[in-house]
Amino acid sequence: MIKLQIIGHLGGDCTTNEVNGRTVINFNVAHSEKYKDAQGSMVDKTTWVRCSYWTDRPTISQYLKKGQLIYAEGNPEAEGFMNKENQAVATLKMNVFRIQLLGSKNDNAGGNSQPNNSYQNQNSTTSNVSQPVTSDVEEPADDLPF
Q1: Among 71, 69, 93, 70, which residue's Cα sits nearest to residue 81?
Q2: Alpha carbon distances (Å) from 20 to 8, 54, 55, 96, 127
Q3: Which of helix, strand or coil describes residue 59?
Q4: Confidence of residue 74 (pLDDT cuts 50, 70, 90)
Q5: What number of other Cβ atoms are within 10 A of residue 140's Cβ?
Q6: Cα separation of 48 and 30, whole Å?
Q7: pLDDT in tens, 114-125
Q8: Which CATH number describes the domain made up of 4-105+114-126?
Q9: Strand 88-104 relative to strand 42-55, pairing
Q10: How far is residue 104's CA from residue 106's CA, in Å, rounded to a whole number?
Q11: Which of these, 110, 112, 23, lies nearest to 65 by C-alpha position?
């Protein structure tokens, strides 16, 4: 099995469609990173991932809005095609089996209006039923001297 994990912001609001009695939620996730190239110039690199999340419980779609920071994991798929300029282009797609809401671009330190839930399919290969999973685990206090 190949698994892709991504943390990034949604590039737009999700779209929800019904296909053969099942719901598919489609959204795009952008992961950006900054680094210095060999010449010492700062480079901004953004990678886009087109995501599809098949579920029988589409309630998470109300929280998948532009700017929302999410963690998603699933099975990757590369797709190639020719663009309008007749150049070969590749895109990265992911069939999502787990989503976790992390916050949004506009969140302040005071809180988050979205639930911090994780939505996960029970069995990603045979069942596409998602179930909210919450974690109330408190991290231990750090007693290290450094």
Answers
A1: 93
A2: 30, 11, 12, 18, 15
A3: helix
A4: very high
A5: 6
A6: 5
A7: 444 566 664 444
A8: 2.40.50.140
A9: parallel
A10: 5
A11: 112
